[in-house]
Amino acid sequence: VTTAEGDIATKASAASVTALTATVGEITADARLKMEVVTGPTGYARIGARVRYGTSGSYWAAGWYLDVPSDPGADTQFVIEADRFVLIDGSTKKVPFRVDGGSVFIDDLKVGTSNIDPGAVTTYETGSLADGSMDGFRTITITVSHGDRANIPGLLIRIDAQAVCVMTIVSGDTASSALTIIKTTGTNQILSQAIVTGRIYETHTLSTFATYIPPTGQTSTTFQITLSHRGSYTDVVAFAQAFKK
Fold first, then answer.
1. What are phi and psi for residue 15, nearest 5 degrees?
2. Which end of the chain has fewer CB atoms < 10 Å from its terminal CB, N or C?
């Protein structure tokens, strides 16, 4: 179907529709391509393609739409209606991103040079110990509120910890210092540990990290970073971040 009409003083318009329909019983499949242009203050140029399948009142559909408004200050649009957006590389299909519940998810991303805005990481928590000395252990506790993995595919938590230790022990003796990351939500679990052995006044830097995938239904996880040491210590810090691998 093609139509055209106009009023030279105000506006002109034209439209073209190509449609196909097939029906068997209550099942209908249809495809439609429409082009429409209108000049004037509220004019536009549009092209839309849409396909549907189903029964009356219960269709599922996909389509794409191009829209250019007459106002140069308004946005042009390329709209896609689909459950998935798929690219094909040879015979390989790839879903570069998906939209679920109003959020955009990218499950596999490789970035060359990136500029990430502050706070763009989903969750970031830190903890530290004031410089001091001890003959025993000190603990940093960090709780990460990360949400339910059922709603965040690929959720991963990474915990990093470091400490600078100076041994203060009897001359000639040796002692060990340990920096341990423990998951304490649910059953306690040692995720990683760094151990050094030294003599009096020796200085050592300990660092360790761990990754953790929370179970479905768990929306937050608590970690303890424990420093076991005899002597003085500085720069004891830990941080945890939740992100999608």
1. -145, 150
2. N
